[in-house]
Amino acid sequence: DAGVTQSPTHLIKTRGQQVTLRCSPKSGHDTVSWYQQALGQGPQFIFQYYEEEERQRGNFPDRFSGHQFPNYSSELNVNALLLGDSALYLCASSFTQGNTGELFFGEGSRLTVL
Amino acid sequence: AQSVAQPEDQVNVAEGNPLTVKCTYSVSGNPYLFWYVQYPNRGLQFLLKYITGDNLVKGSYGFEAEFNKSQTSFHLKKPSALVSDSALYFCAVRGTGGFKTIFGAGTRLFVKA
Q1: Dihedral angle of Cα B6, B12, B16, B17, to the nearest 10 degrees
Q2: How much is the pLDDT for A98?
Q3: pLDDT tens-place string over residues A58-114
Q4: Mean pLDDT of chain A
Q5: What's the rounded Cα separation, in Å, for the pair A98 and A95?
Q6: Do A99 and B99 touch, CB atoms closer than 8 A?
Q7: Which pairing describes strands A19-24 and A74-78: parallel, antiparallel, or unpaired?
Q8: Number of CB pairs < 8 Å for A and B?
Q9: Are B90 and A43 in contact (CB < 8 Å)?
Q10: Which helix (H) or strand (E) is B91 found in, with range?
Q11: Per-residue pLDDT at A21 exceeds 90
Q12: What is the mean pLDDT of residues A6-20?
């Protein structure tokens, strides 16, 4: 049973570019949440997708957008990259029924913006 | 608004001694509380959760946590620390009416042999 998989694991971009990060949830999970973890900080909630819709959003600008596909996989897109977007981006999946379940995290995509 | 506070950046403990990592929270309604552990350059791994019921919950690797509603705390504990417990620990909370899980800033646990 595969866990949460994310790609790519590392990438380097320059300011102003755009990036797309991908996530496949754990088998049986229908909800995907994205987090940004800057160095030395806790994960910050970006948004959550369920039934192909953004269900809740954190305090991130519109440059951050996402998508969920019918197979529950998800993408995170960041436009007009800034130096401050350099971070580890974590995808977490969960099963929404009951909403009491823990999150299962991928290993993350480390983005460096030069 | 939800929030989580982990007042200690780092906790140092000798191997074999008990450890406590502190966490306080603020959330509307009843909380769902979680502890996660993160090893270098890895994602977070779930340790334990409190949803309802017994205030003392047991989790993976011998960890446990005590929920205290009056103090809005959810401290992580282990009776006897191991060097391999050295890692970054995050407390997290989700309100019963919401969907997002909010994480604290993390506490680095260092267990000395």
Answers
A1: -70
A2: 66
A3: 999 999 999 999 999 999 999 999 999 999 999 999 988 766 779 999 999 999 999
A4: 94
A5: 8
A6: yes
A7: antiparallel
A8: 60
A9: yes
A10: strand B87-95
A11: yes
A12: 98
Give B4-42 as a 3 state SS string.
Answer: EECCCCEEEEECCCCEEECCEEECCCCEEEEEEEECCCC
pLDDT of residue A87: 97
Helix/strand/coil (H/E/C) assignment for every residue in chain A: CCCCEEECCEEEECCCCCEEEEEECCCCCCEEEEEEECCCCCCEEEEEEECCEEEEECCCCCCEEEEECCCCCEEEEECCCCHHHCEEEEEEEECCCCCCCCCEECCCEEEEEC
Assess whether pLDDT exceeds 90 at residue B97.
no
Kindly report the average pLDDT of chain B as a whole number.
Answer: 94
Our CA-based measurement puts residue B23 at a distance from the nearest CA of chain A, in whole angstroms, of: 13
Contact A106 B43 (CB under 8 A): yes
d(CA B34, CA B93): 6
Q: Please count the other Cβ atoms lying within 10 Å of the Cβ belonging to residue A20.
A: 15
Residue type for position A19: V
On the question of pLDDT at B83 being above 90, the answer is yes
CB within 8 Å: A58 and B49:
no
- What is the Cα Rg of chain A in Å? 13
